[in-house]
Design goal:
Layout (H helix, E strand, L loop, with lengths): L1 H36 L3 H37 L9 H7 L5 H11 L2 H4 L1 H11 L1
Helix pairs in contact: 1-2, 1-6, 2-4, 2-6
Amino acid sequence: MTTTALQQEWLALQAQHERYEALTLAVKLAAVAVCVVVPDSVLALGLIALLWLQEGVLKTFQGRLGDRLLVVEAGVKAGAAALPMQLHSDWLLGRPRGAGLLAQYLKSALRPTVALPYPLLMALTVAC
């Protein structure tokens, strides 16, 4: 029974993990739209920075799901050695507070796969 629960949890987590990937792509596209559509470069820079940070938050959330996916996969591989449906309980045990949480968001925002388009869009905004 536990293996089936872990398998169902994996399916749900994987679907959400992929959904976060689509959301972060939408954030990147919104940043491109801001660069093209917003005529005030100061406002555009602020909005692009905000979208960059928002993507960092989304990637942090996605990372938490990825961490749980790895636990679930190990549980399935070991024949249900992991308890199912412990995403929030496990996260709460190591949840950072205040500055630690902000540091997580910033670390995610500075990952190359997240950060790559934003400085370029900001430079384009200033140049145009």
